[in-house]
Design goal:
The protein is built from four helices and no strands. By secondary structure, the chain is mostly helical. The longest helix is centred in the N-terminal third of the chain and has 32 residues.
């Protein structure tokens, strides 16, 4: 587990380095700072409180502990994906150059959300049944 965390940390540092390098080429720094500030506000003002609220509801609803973690993790992943996709999803009107963003972003975002929900359901069900079998033994 320690090796996995160390590798994840190194990968994160490498990606931060790539991001910093790409930021050097940006001419309009104000837009980038505005986007980053908006991401922080959305995360701290909406996403984190929502996940905490769902966690409280799950605990008070006496949902088994093995399911709570995957549900909160799924909310974090879905929220982060949504925050990253918001600029493209909310872009009004037709694009001047359709070759710049040629993908169906709404469809792909929905596919990502369904994937997150499916994986969460499978992990939660696996934990639910595993804990139930341990208690029955």
């Amino acid at each position: 587990m320690k090796l996995t965390r160390a590798l994840a940390g190194l990968a994160g540092l490498a990606l931060m380095g790539v991001g910093a390098t790409l930021l050097l080429d940006v001419r309009e720094v104000t837009g980038v700072l505005l986007w980053l500030g908006g991401a922080v506000v959305l995360h701290d003002g909406l996403l984190a409180p929502l996940v905490l609220l769902v966690g409280v509801v799950l605990v008070r609803g006496r949902v088994r502990g093995g399911v709570r973690g995957p549900v909160r993790g799924a909310l974090m992943v879905a929220g982060a994906l949504t925050i990253v996709a918001l600029p493209v999803l909310l872009r009004p009107g037709p694009r001047a150059n359709s070759s710049v963003l040629p993908l169906d972003y709404w469809g792909n975002w929905l596919l990502a959300m369904v994937t997150v929900a499916t994986v969460t359901t499978l992990v939660g069900a696996g934990r639910w049944f595993r804990r139930g079998r341990r208690g029955a033994s």
